[in-house]
User: Which sequence fits this backbone?
């Protein structure tokens, strides 16, 4: 006989541990289990081991709404974030509810029983299954076992090492090496200054620039408030301050993109000096926040370049050659190590098979209800954070909304809830975001519609009201009880 749980949480990373804590706090009578494909918790913050790994958001908003971040650094390194996740799990007694080495293979909704039948596989290849009434999918937004690796001609000709940051070898020594970092996103701008401390030289090779902002890695206001106020009060004030500021910056970028761009470029010129070619290397062809803004704490990237330890090249790759990279311009960049910081493979709901009564479902053909449920897929919420703010801001809201749904069903004798999209919805891309990691898998992601509640607004203020306060009984959601299910079957 299969084990049964009221709630299954998929993933024990930042989102999954947060979801489990919310569940314990807000659904105390419901049984739950967390299944994690890897052998330990932490998700991204345990998987990623490349030099300099850190947050690209401040930890007062990337942290949980219920667990204050108390470290002095607001832009934290990976090990500090991992400790925070583990400390949170310990504080709320989550560890005993986690099944490690339990990768979800498939999820099949049984309409007659109003539960999910979930098949798992362990590290040895042995399969098992369990049932759950409700699933919170917190499996992350990218494939853990495969980073995005575009094709490069001549890859096998290069005599040095080629590493993707997602698969950084343990104890790999970069000291004294000539290094090329291919990419211009958050990973690249993190790697370059970190590697520059010990490498012979680091070259950041980009096809096109990304918008970059600088800020201190400490929050003086937060550190002061912790000295004079209770911990939770100081955290709440700082979190609110940072949410308001981030929202202001984003809205300014949308309303006055030219002015915002000029400000960002001015800050870079200030760091690199008037003779640096900022127009070529740091002026993108798109407006600020049309793609995610990269964060450089303490201007470390620019300091490395100004010191001569790092440089930047904007060009297209012709091919890899034995001694490095041949550019379209004809120049050869010599290297001992090439790091392909070329991005992630984005997925939704862990990229696992989802079926209804044995019939496979194509998530790419569904509409997203408020960006967290898939049309015609019962009793499941999927955590996908913000592209224009800290991931956890939305993860917290989605977890709490899932708890609202489950408590509503328990209180009213209901067994299932399904988002039902109207036939006249006009499909649009899942998020209004032009980043390559989204556009190249757009056909595999759910669609958003042309009106609420089928839009994925990426707006914390709006989501906080609609997800936490709006009535659940409306036309977007269809609830059913066991009696209705039995009558329908008969």
Assistant:
């Amino acid at each position: 006989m299969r084990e049964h749980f009221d709630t299954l949480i998929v993933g024990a990373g930042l989102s999954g541990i947060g979801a489990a804590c919310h569940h314990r706090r807000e659904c105390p009578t419901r049984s739950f289990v967390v299944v994690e494909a890897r052998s330990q918790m932490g998700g991204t913050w345990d998987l990623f081991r490349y030099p300099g790994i850190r947050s690209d958001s401040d930890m007062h908003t990337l942290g949980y709404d219920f667990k204050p971040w108390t470290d002095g650094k607001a832009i934290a390194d990976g090990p500090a974030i991992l400790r925070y996740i583990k400390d949170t799990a310990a504080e709320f007694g989550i560890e005993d509810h986690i099944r490690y080495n339990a990768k979800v293979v498939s999820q099949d909704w049984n309409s007659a029983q109003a539960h999910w039948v979930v098949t798992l596989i362990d590290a040895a290849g042995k399969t098992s299954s369990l049932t759950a009434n409700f699933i919170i999918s917190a499996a992350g937004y990218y494939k853990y076992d495969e980073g995005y690796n575009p094709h490069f001609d001549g890859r096998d000709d290069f005599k040095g090492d080629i590493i993707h940051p997602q698969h950084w070898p343990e104890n790999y020594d970069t000291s004294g090496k000539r290094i090329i970092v291919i990419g211009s996103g958050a990973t690249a701008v993190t790697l370059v200054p970190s590697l520059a401390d010990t490498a012979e030289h680091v070259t950041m090779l980009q096809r096109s620039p990304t918008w970059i902002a600088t800020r201190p890695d400490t929050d003086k206001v937060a550190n002061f408030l912790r000295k004079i106020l209770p911990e939770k009060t100081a955290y709440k004030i700082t979190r609110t301050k940072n949410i308001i500021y981030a929202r202001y910056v984003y809205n300014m970028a949308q309303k006055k993109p030219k002015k915002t761009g000029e400000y960002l470029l001015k800050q870079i010129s200030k760091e690199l000096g008037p003779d640096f070619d900022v127009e070529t290397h740091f002026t993108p062809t798109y407006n600020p926040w049309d793609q995610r803004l990269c964060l450089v704490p303490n201007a470390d990237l620019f300091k490395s370049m100004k010191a001569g330890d790092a440089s930047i090249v904007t060009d297209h790759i012709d091919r890899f050659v034995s001694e490095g990279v041949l550019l379209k311009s004809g120049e050869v960049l010599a290297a001992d190590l090439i790091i392909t910081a070329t991005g992630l493979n984005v997925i939704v709901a862990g990229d696992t098979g989802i079926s209804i009564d044995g019939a496979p479902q194509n998530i790419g053909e569904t509409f997203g209800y408020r960006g967290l449920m898939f049309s015609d897929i019962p009793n499941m919420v999927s955590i996908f954070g913000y592209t224009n703010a800290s991931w956890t801001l939305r993860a917290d809201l989605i977890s709490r909304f899932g708890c609202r749904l489950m408590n509503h069903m328990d209180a009213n004798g209901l067994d299932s809830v399904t988002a039902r999209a109207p036939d006249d919805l006009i499909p649009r891309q899942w998020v209004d975001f032009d980043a390559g990691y989204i556009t190249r898998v757009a056909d595999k992601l759910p669609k958003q519609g042309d009106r609420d509640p089928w839009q994925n607004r990426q707006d914390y203020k709006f989501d906080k009201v609609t997800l936490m306060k709006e009535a659940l009984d409306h036309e977007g959601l269809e609830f059913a009880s066991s009696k209705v299910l039995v009558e329908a079957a008969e």
Q: What stands out?
A: The two ends are 26 Å apart (CA to CA). Confidence is low (pLDDT under 50) at residues 484-490. The chain has two domains: 3-144+345-489, 155-219+264-340.
